[in-house]
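User: Once you have settled down, look closely at the record that follows, taking as long as you need, and be ready to discuss the fold:
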Amino acid sequence: MNSLTICLNESVPINSLILSLSIIDRDSGDNARVTWKLDPLSLIPFELIRLTESTGELRTKNLLDYEHVSQYNLTLEAHDHGRPFSRSTHLNIYIIILDENDNIPTFKENNMTATINEHVKLTSQNGYEIFHLHALDYDHGLNGEVVYSIINNENNVFRIDSNTGIIRALIELDKKQHDKYILQVKAQDKGQPSLSSQGTITFTVISQNEYPPECDINNNNLSWSILENSEYGTIIGMLSCRDDDKDLPNGEISVHPQWFPEGKIDAQNKYMIPFEIMITKSNITE
């Protein structure tokens, strides 16, 4: 045959026998003396071992990884030492690596934190979204498909979509009654046997975002002046803003310039503005 396909599990150990070879040349003398080589010889996890002039073995020399390389195309070339010219033949070897469930679903962080506003009115019996859980599994097919669950959901305060990882609150939360919830969550793949990992989400219940940020600007207008030869970094003025919400992040503020009306800014006029806003404290802006 001119070609051969071999399927290998990615877990085969180093030095595993992949293929036994026997090459026959019906001539005699140098006409039957055969030399063979494997192309490509480098950067592949296999090696060709010559046992006799006419027999050899193909073995693994490194571990295989489906997620790194899933297929190898090798060419075995054999030529005799005949005179006045040699004859040669080729065997194309296609090695297909089969995926195994060797990667565990993992969260970006095992200990996650999030905040939930209290007194959010329920508009649906399905509750409202508060968190999106996500785990990575580098396997393919069912081995890489992840389902999610909550381990300690005795009070049925939360519900998780097993396919998407979206967590919803099913009740109107009250900070005075319960200001913290700790959920144990699990990510499990669909491989056989399946692999899983666990994580923790700490939810802190905070007050509603009741107040908008306010800055010390009269009638929404503020005027400053600066000399035209001022050095870079010169402070033109100070702006103080505050937010009367007590809980983080509702009480945190950030200040951003809007130099042009919405939709009017482009790459050209963006860089015509020789000023920048710098936050120096949580409520002081230069």
